[in-house]
Amino acid sequence: MSATSASILSRPVHPLHAILLAFPLPLFLGALLADLAYWKTFQMQWANFASWLIAGALLIGGFALLWALIGLFRVGAGRRRNAALYFVVLLAMWGLGLVNALVHAKDAFAIMPEALVLSAVVTLLALVAAWMGYSGFSSRGAIR
């Protein structure tokens, strides 16, 4: 008979935060793909679709950002640097996403190429934020 030891698994983020964090990446990625489709076809509906996807990503991403801000104040001093870096990445994602939404609010023919570049940068930031959040980089359970 072998002895077994109980291991305690730590959660990187709270499950509700994980759900909120799951939305910005696919929505911003969808907006990037819609911008690519608009760039190739110049069908204005693709620009409209990208605008709606960005609005959804900003709405849900804002709640994830708020959760990260609250978690930043709840974390201990030793883990504050990681939580602050995670918050800054989410803040940059949300801020550039807002700029991207304002760019998409212009006439459809006037949004290229800056809408495409902003969508790519925001999608990359959403990927980095999701990676940090799900890997536990955000302070190993401090944002529970």
Automatic annotation (TrEMBL):
<feature type="domain" description="DUF2231">
    <location>
        <begin position="14"/>
        <end position="134"/>
    </location>
</feature>
<feature type="transmembrane region" description="Helical">
    <location>
        <begin position="115"/>
        <end position="134"/>
    </location>
</feature>
<dbReference type="InterPro" id="IPR016923">
    <property type="entry name" value="UCP029509"/>
</dbReference>
<dbReference type="InterPro" id="IPR019251">
    <property type="entry name" value="DUF2231_TM"/>
</dbReference>
<feature type="transmembrane region" description="Helical">
    <location>
        <begin position="49"/>
        <end position="72"/>
    </location>
</feature>
<keyword id="KW-1133">Transmembrane helix</keyword>
<dbReference type="Pfam" id="PF09990">
    <property type="entry name" value="DUF2231"/>
</dbReference>
<protein>
    <recommendedName>
        <fullName>DUF2231 domain-containing protein</fullName>
    </recommendedName>
</protein>
<keyword id="KW-0472">Membrane</keyword>
<keyword id="KW-0812">Transmembrane</keyword>
<feature type="transmembrane region" description="Helical">
    <location>
        <begin position="84"/>
        <end position="103"/>
    </location>
</feature>
